[in-house]
Amino acid sequence: MGTFASVIRQKSSNNVVLYRAVSKDGENFYAYIRCDEKQYHKMKHDFMTKSICQDVKDYGEVLYVALGTEPDEEAEKFLADYLKNM
Questions:
Q1: DSSP letter string, 9-50
Q2: I want to staple 71 with a disulfide (CB 3.0 to 4.6 A). Which of 13, 17, 75, 80 is the partner?
Q3: 34-63 pLDDT tens trace
Q4: What pLDDT sits at residue 36?
Q5: Strand-pair partners of 16
Q6: For the whole model, what pTM was predicted?
Q7: 59, 57, 30: which is closest to 42 by C-alpha?
Q8: How far from 17 is each of 1, 28, 31, 36, 84, CA to CA, in Å?
Q9: DSSP letters along 60-84, please?
Q10: d(Cα 80, Cα 60) in Å, to the nearest integer?
């Protein structure tokens, strides 16, 4: 457990983003990923250049993942609860 200041700094410097992709098996999936600014820019760069992501964990901490193209009610509830408790 870090100091209070380091925990606050970590929480304030990370964002939760919605990531959509196709798995190696050809399945559409989405994930909520907590990432810092550097990881976010890598994700955006890879998207813009159509680079293949070898491991979604390269973009940050995967909080939630499910099959499909759009978050369902369960995913939205997870995100709301997660953000409330952050």
A1: HHHHT-EEEEEEEE-TTS-EEEEEEEE-HHHHHHHHHHHHTT
A2: 75
A3: 999 999 999 999 888 988 888 889 999 999
A4: 92
A5: 34
A6: 0.77
A7: 59
A8: 25, 17, 8, 10, 15
A9: SEEEEEEESSS--HHHHHHHHHHHH
A10: 19
